[in-house]
Prior knowledge:
Pfam families: CCG (PF02754), Fer4_9 (PF13187). The chain crosses the membrane at residues 12-37, 86-110, 130-150, 162-183, 203-222, 234-252. The chain is mainly α. Among the domains are: 55-161, no CATH class; 296-350 and 363-399, Alpha-helical ferredoxin (Fumarate Reductase Iron-sulfur Protein, Chain B, domain 2, Orthogonal Bundle), CATH 1.10.1060.10; 414-566, Rossmann fold (3-Layer(aba) Sandwich); 577-693, 3-Layer(aba) Sandwich (Rossmann fold). 55% of the residues lie in helices and 4% in strands. The strands form 2 sheets. The protein has a 4-stranded parallel beta sheet with strand order 2-1-3-4. Helix 28 links the parallel strand 6 and strand 7 (683-686).
Amino acid sequence: MSEFAGRTEFWNIGYPFAGALVYLIAPIALASIAYAMRRRWQLWHTAGADVDLGPSSVRWKAFLSLLVGGLFAHKQFVRKRDLYPGIMHFSIFWGFTILLIATTIAAFEFNAEKYLDWIWPTAHIRVELGFIWDVFGGGLATVGLSMAFWRRYVIKPSRLNTALDEGVVLGFLFALLITGFLIEGMRIGATELNPSSSYYDTSIAVWSPIGWIFAKALMGIGFTSATLESVHAITWWAHAGIFVSAIVYAALRFSRFTHMIVSPMNWYYRSLRPRGALKPMGDFETLETFGAKDIPDLSWTQMLSFDACTNCGRCQDACPAWASGKPLSPRAVIQGMRGYMEERAPVLLGTPEGEAPPEPATSMVHDAIGDDALWSCLTCAACLDACPVEINQIEPIIDMRRFLTLEEASTPDTAQSALQSIEQRGHPWRGTTLTRTSWMDGLDIPTLAEKPESEVLFWVGCSGALVQRGVDTTRSMASVLKKAGIEFAVLGDEETCTGDPARRLGNEYLFQMQAETNIETFKQYDVKKIITTCPHCFNTIKNEYPQLGGNYDVIHYTAFVGELLKEGKLKPTEAGIGKVGTVTYHDSCYLGRHNGEFGAPREIISSIPGLNFVEMDRNQERSFCCGAGGGQMWMEAEGERVNHMRTDQFLETGAETVAVSCPFCIQMFDEGITAKGAEDDKKAVDLISILDKMTD
Length: 696
């Protein structure tokens, strides 16, 4: 045996028989997991849509960043809005990881010394390391599992609905932990605390405090050294059996255990597109089907993401559609897709090559998910932001919307009306009496046709030109640009809808038509720099037009104006501040969560002298959607309206004014304030209009 004190591998078990058995069990366990992963890989690859993984160097860099920050530092899990489960997961992960490291090091020490006659470096500090293994391994694991049991069986949050699988997993982990402590305690009691043992040394025993406590407790209830040795052997084999059983359970059920493998895989294979950019469909002339009707219409990386889901419910808690009583739960979408995959993919795998697979017994779109759920999505990205394993819940929803719109023509009537208006008039605002140039009356604004040398194109957008509240914002934007001495031009009648509503409603064909028209216009005038007031236009031109060859420097006005303020080209005063009162700010989903712009609007607010600003409780990444995204602006809402919920959150601040930086948001707040009967003393104003009034 080793001359070094501390944990002795295979003590009291019998070597080489026990060791040989353990080394036989280990590859069997690993083979079980490998078989399960291979089978799952086959299921995933029944999907047939193209996958663009991009450069591997970029992917590895992004993956390692997530691995360090998301897994090791647990930034993806430990968030203020979800602190308890975040700490719980951190404790379980690092507790059992440290215990695994301890077991691995012990195996290296034993085999290096026995077969290579080499002392593994850690053997010199085996006693001191025992303290780390006990306190930071066993201690953290105990804290994490205790929190998990308390949360699931005492607190019982409504979003947790996997009691059986979760209970089995927690049971396995607890059994591994308690038997591990018992094994350590019985070894310490029979050796380091036993005066008749050659290992006797009480000063060493206390370096493993949890094991020492177990040893003292067992000895206190009458366990003799002989009893400790006998029960130790039984417990050691029980511990090994529990481990093997857990591996087999994970392999057979592809349960919660396997997310330790699949979730990091999803981090690596997740889309590296900007969050606000939807997946392109490609060349319509080569497509056999439009949208996703069945598994072959999806990508294998999407199928992988369904398995990466741990059913934690964070996305559901964050979803405004779910909060307002709509039939959409992002968690249920992903779990429904996983269930459909497990039902349908084996049928596809069993179909002989060259033969058409049988029609599915149930519809992926209509049965597994449901039309109402698909049309309830606001595409606000609250679910994406909340998901610790980077699942994109929006992507399969849009894929299935494309099927409903392009294959079945079953778009909701009001949304279909907006799509028809885009196709016929170039904008979704059916019935407007305004034109693309009405807002320009009396302002002396040049068009690019009149001033093609202009370096900056001010993209007005449909709402900015054709909705009166949007017109007010557009005129303020033009005024601020003039005050700052910025030379700019607009497209006027040559401007047409970016196609954003069409794409979010599933009409990819109409989106491409609109995008290609605008890209051709930009090419005609050699447009390079574009400023927008609408986050939806900003996101579409910046993140989605490059898919069709349109690459431009696109800036939302909050960032552009923020720079003008820093350069001293705009100097706000306190004039008129009394009419505004206390101000709060609403983060637009497509400016904030989708494009990460939270600071610029607040810099504008802080630049206005004397302005009293208060934050809403749900702000920045946690901002609650206004209710207009994902084409909901043109759909009838049933039940509680999302914009009414957000209006309530505004009213709770006590502020007189809610500042916004999106034309959709301002319309939704206007309706919400009126519906709440607060229009006499509360108002919604675009931030650029506030700045315009307070700038000479």
